Amino acid sequence: QVQLVESGGGLVQPGGSLRLSCAASGSIVSINGMAWYRQAPGKQREWVASVSSGGTTGYTDSVKGRFTISRDNAKNTVYLQMDSLKSEDTAMYYCNVWGRRRDSRWNFGDFDSWGQGTQVTVSS
Q1: Chain center to CA of 65
Q2: How is 20-83 classified by DSSP, letter by letter?
Q3: Is the Cα torsion angle 46, 35, 1, 21 positive or negative in sign?
Q4: Which one of 27, 74, 82, 122 is least enclosed by Cβ atoms within 10 Å?
């Protein structure tokens, strides 16, 4: 099993900043990719940003130039630095991590895990 623990959400004024963290733990052999999604009330979950094992990043258009995704491979942790926050960024943010896990001494498998979500509210 691979577990994800998110932190860093909260209430911030428009134009402010927040930094989200997501730490993965468990029988992890390797992590292929890490991503952030968000879901606002009444809307579908949408992809926000992702980073590959090689460090390649991608962002949805609405956050480009404002959000920065990064990862610390030694800590199995992914971060989302959010600057110049807008009211439309208000949502529950979820991290998603996928890769290879170790089930036993000789058995391995894939994992695709999600965090529990952390609320980000941008309001004056």
Answers
A1: 17
A2: EEEEEEESEEEEEEEEEEEE-TTS--EEEEEEETT--EEE-GGGTTTEEEEEETTTTEEEEEE-
A3: negative
A4: 74
Cβ neighbour number for residue 5 with a 10 Å cutoff: 14
Q: How far is CA 74 from CA 37, 41, 48, 63, 104, in A?
A: 23, 35, 23, 27, 22
pLDDT tens-place string over residues 8-38: 999 999 999 999 999 999 999 999 999 999 9
> In angstroms, rounded to a whole number, what is the distance separating the alpha carbons of residues 85 and 91?
12
Residue of 82, 83, 107, 80 whose CA lies nearest to 96: 80
Q: Is 89 helix (H, G, I), strand (E, B) or coil?
A: helix
